[in-house]
Amino acid sequence: MMWIDMTPHDVVSICVALVAFGVGISSLEVLASWRHYRRGGVLDCSMLEIDSWVLRHFPRVLFTAPCVYITATLRFLAVCPLMFPLALSPIRAACALLALVGLGIQTAFSRSGTDGADQMAKMVLAAGAGVYLLPSSRAIAEWGIAFIVAQASLAYLVSGTIKFISPNWRSGQALAAIMCTRLFGRARVGRWLTTHRKFSAAVSWAVMIWECLFPLVILAPPRIMALMLAVGVLFHVTGAFVMGLNTFFWSFVGTYPAIVFANVAINRS
Amino acid sequence: MGPSTERPTVDPRRSCMRLEFLLKTLLTFWFALTILRCLNLPRLRVLAQFDIFGLIPNWGFFGHQPVEFRVVYRTIDRQGIATNWAEVDFLGTRTWREGLWHPLKRVEKSFAVNPRNIARLCLRNVDRQVIALSRPYLAVLNQVRQVARNDCRPEPLECQFSISRTIIVDGASTELLVMQSNMHDVD
Known about the structure:
- The complex is a heterodimer of chains A (269) and B (187).
- Chain A starts with a helix and ends with a helix.
- Chain A has helices at residues 2-5, 8-32, 48-51, 65-83, 89-109, 116-133, 138-165, 167-170, 173-180, 187-195, 197-213, 222-243, 246-253, 256-268.
- The mean pLDDT of chain A is 90.
- Helices cover 74% and strands 0% of the residues of chain A.
- Chain B has helices at residues 12-39, 45-50, 105-123, 128-132, 135-150; strands at 67-77, 86-87, 156-169, 172-180, 184-185.
- In chain B, strands 1, 2, 3, 4 and 5 form a 5-stranded antiparallel β-sheet that branches.
- Chains A and B meet through helix 2, helix 3, helix 5, helix 6 and helix 7 of A and helix 1, helix 3 and helix 5 of B.
């Protein structure tokens, strides 16, 4: 019953720490792929002004590779104190805000290269910043947890519903096709799923049902909740190692402590 | 009687309550915007246009039938001799290590997204000149130029690329030509 002893602030701190770890990895990955942001590179950000009239109003100096490196470095430095929640709340609030702004700038810089992991990380960091701003308020901490839970539930529900609407997903064909792509798949897994259509359909249905039912996890009995979250961890570990979506794991599993807290609070009341 | 020198006192509890109310409203509003974005209503697509920092998430992942794009290129040397078409192979073999550390993730995704965005422009019958000045086109051109410069073929002067769409059904792939670029200087 460890969760009962925890305050909502502690739970938000755990969520933020897990997400911060993912943001830290993602920031270092940007620095490791630095040459692609240079002029003439694939992610050359000087081209961003072309198709966004909003960005055209920003100073040109922002759309340079050094700015990308500085932002990534600042983002990494900002998430370090969040990974080990020892710092004081105002410092953590500033760090969470800085990381959030850094992720936003990163999104603006590489508009074609963002992913859902960044989006969920922004949600958790925003909630964390709000909670750290008012460390004495239990109400805002609970509101922050509710925000994280709501965003995670909506993410899985929307994702599951979109798959459910698609006949290709219902037949298992879409999953096999994704695994056949070079970007998200593995040729061997793709070929195997293509020849084992029933298995592909069963996995697709399992994913769709799990995603669509995810919002109910906060109302579920503890054992069902534990099972649902264990499936979630397995789902994201598979996504990381098979599809290369490594930061999805940290961003989405980072919301699970908030879900456990909400479940325990609801079941207790 | 001069003006009072006493500072007006600020009740910290009251300002905390105000901040609390503000934060709660902000988070609620944020979630409401997320729901609107996920509904993907045509009237609300303007939300995405203004959201350059990606603060309003759209949670629809992997909902559509996957489509892959292939970019092939050729170069012309100083004698005017064109090489054969060769694929711009940006994705190496996926390794298990990428489950922990995947530095080229954004680069790889942009390789997939830019040809898709060009294909969308072509489908909408956008003028070729406009497409040639669009960001996705210039990004693909950058990528082709990089590959052409590092190519072992002698002295490339100009390059040209072609994008084709691959639809994967039952493990079999079908290719359709999306567009072929004009010739461009390699440097």
